[in-house]
Amino acid sequence: MSDLADYGASVDSLDGGPTVNVRSLVDAWTGTRGVTLSLVDTPHTHPGPARLALDQVDDLISILVAARDHVAATASVDAARPGSPLVPKFRADLPPKQPRTALGAFSARLVTAPGMWALHPSSPFSSVTSASASVSHINRGRSKAFPTSLFEAQARGADVYVRYMPKGNR
Questions:
Q1: Where are the domains of the chain?
Q2: Can you say how many angstroms the Cα of residue 28 is from the centroid of all Cα atoms in its chain?
Q3: What global pTM score does this model have?
Q4: pLDDT in tens, 36-90
Q5: Distance between CA atoms of 106 and 100, rounded to whole angstroms?
Q6: Phi and psi at residue 67, in whole multiples of 5°?
Q7: CA-CA distance, 41 to 91, in Å (whole number)?
Q8: Which of 7, 37, 95, 157 is the most buried (most CB within 10 A)?
């Protein structure tokens, strides 16, 4: 993200209606850039649309222009800085898959006891079919909790048992 702070402002509507909020949007993860416009109700807000007087409309337009200009300025700062989302970083290989947090500790414990079977924490599964699908994902290395093909799983009814098998022991 840029060194510039987010830009935001608001305009209160007439008659105690909702407040119009404007914020700049610069998402470093997705590269999304734009302006968000939202109506904010408070416990004292009357139901209905935001009604603005002409001078408030002028204020809102100038706030929108300022937010747009902020996003444009942020884009030029980010584009000039190495390592920004607009300047790609190339790598020869992808980082390893991260295990899901719920099952990550379970798979880490399996690694400490190679060859030993353990009941999967989600057992019993809701059906034999879902247990079989889970076994298939684990055995093919397609499960995020068990990212390598070093894990083996077998189903016994709706229960799934998993073990860690180092290379050469399978």
A1: 8-80, 101-164
A2: 12
A3: 0.41
A4: 777 777 777 777 777 888 888 888 888 888 888 877 776 655 554 555 555 566 6
A5: 10
A6: -65, -40
A7: 47
A8: 7
